[in-house]
Structure formats: C-alpha cells, structure tokens
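Quick illustration, no need to memorize.
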Amino acid sequence: MTQKSLKLLSIALILTLFSAFIAACGAKTTNTSATATTAPTAAGASADAQIKLPETLRIGFISANNNKTITGPEGWAQSKGYLESELKKYGVKEFKYFTFPNGPNLNEAITAGTLDVGIYGDTPAINGKAAGLKTRLINLSQVNMNAWLVAKADGPKTLTDLKDKKVATSQGSYMSRYLTSLLKEQGLDKSVKILHLLPADGEAALARGDIAAYAYPTGFGPLLLKKGYVAIDEAAKHPILQGSSLTVVTEDYLAKNPQFPKLWNDLRTKAVKEIRENPDAYWKFYAEASGYPEDVVRASFKIEQWPIEAVPAEGLKLIDETKKFLVEQGLAKKDFAIQEWLVK
C-alpha cells in the first residue's frame, strides 16, 4: 500500500470514530432529556399514591326527608358516581351518610365522634366552634341562602302586626339568626316570643293558630307559599341576614388526613362547574333528592349561590358578620377568628 493510500485510510478511520462519538453524545443527551420530562409525572403519581385515607368516611348533612343523597354540588357528584369513585382511589371503601333535621343535632354527632365531615348552616357550625367543637372549615358550599317569614293568608300582613304574638323557627339554625336579627332591627325583640319548632312542624302550628308566623328555610318556604300562605318578610331583603352552608371536617380526621380538604374541594368544584353548565338537570336532581317539586326548588335558589371557589370573599365576609352577631348577642359562647378556623 502506498504512503498516500495509508494517509487516506487514516483520515477515513478518524472521521468514522468522530461520527460514532457524536452519535453517542446525542443518544446520551436525548435519554437525559426524556428522563427529565417524565420525572415530574412520575413524582406526581407517586405523591398521589402516598395519600391514604381511612377505609370509612362518615358524612353528615341536613335533610328534611332523610334521603341519603346530599342536596348540593356534593350530592350531584354523589349521584354521578365520582364522589365515591375518586375517593376510593385513596383507600376509602365505605361511605356512611347520616341525615339530621337541623344543625344542633349534627353538632351533637360531631361531639360524639360519629362524623368526619359535616355540611350544614353557618349558624350551628359557628355556634359549635365557639362552644369548643373541634372542627375546621373546609369550604362555603352555598352562600346567600334565603329564609321566609311565613304567615297564614288571613294572618299578620306586616312585621309590626307580630307585636305581642308568638313566632317560631328551628333554634340554632340560620333562620333563627335571621328572625332574631330582624325582630331586633324592628324593635320587636322584647314583645315577640320566639318558639323552637322544626320546619316540618311549622305548618300545623300555623294552621292551629299556635304561632303567628314561622321563619322557614329553602324548600319549605316556597312550598308553603305555593299552598297559599304569605311571606311578610324574607332574608333576601336584608342581604346581611342571609345564610350560608358550610362544610367542616373534624380536627382529628384532618390531623391524620391533611390532604383530604383539597381532594374534597376539587370534587366539589368539578360538580359546581357541571351544574352551572346544566342547571335544568341540576334542578331536576335536587327535586328528586329533596322531595320538593321542581318549581319550589327553582323558587328557593339561584344557581350562582353555589360558588366555584371553595371560599369566596363575599361568603367569607357574610359568615364573619354572622359570627360577630352571634357573639354580640351571647348566642355564641366564645369569639374566634374565622381565618384561623379555615383550612388553608
């Protein structure tokens, strides 16, 4: 082989080795890039896999007919199946639903240690916390809830007509705060006696003349109006006196399951977006779950009352005003900071 041929062969060998080196570097760079791209996804999946909830979740809520379906966005998610299916991914195997006629009864169940989560009115939830109930606030499930002060058609027509008469509502409820505040504003708190009656017993008391008026919650109020009774006032005329529905979790459950509030609120947000996109379907669902006629349900609510965000600023302000009133009136045993109660 000539000296020229050897020189050309050496050059070709060097070029071949250099090309192989470049290819190897490229492969290494590609693999490193792929690893960096997939790592966060794997980490996220790993984090989700580490969330382990107790096998049983005990949920309490207010129901007029003892139906085990929750009448709100959470109930929508429940009826669609994903409230349970999503939480089952984190270890929940059994869901226990408990219904209560009013908030104080639900508070008693929390005190007894038989609930993990409670969905109920702002007044009993706040009163419970002020009395030492070990709960934390997860969300404001519903805001601006109306209440109706209902009387017979041939009964009192105005608030002043209630002077020296008896009225009633469910003690410790958001309607009781509305009624108490309303009478105080009108200077009637000393001359009108408030009795404790559950909503289901109100109509009979009105018909017998035992009471002059009853402060009804959503559902019951419009239902009585449909029957021919009249509303001499309603909370919607006094926005600050409207109620809210709150979701609380026990401190014990939260301490052991700190990821639960986000899981719950994400499911609720998904449900709220769906019901806002399909209000007619939601009204139908609510009517079936509550037992009220659909027109009564529509008269009771506006779809916007179920906020997409877990803690809307407007709702937070409303429950803070509720708390201040309850403390000032001596109805709440002890003052506390709403922000410290709230899970963040």
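The CA atoms of residues 136 and 217 lie 25 Å apart.
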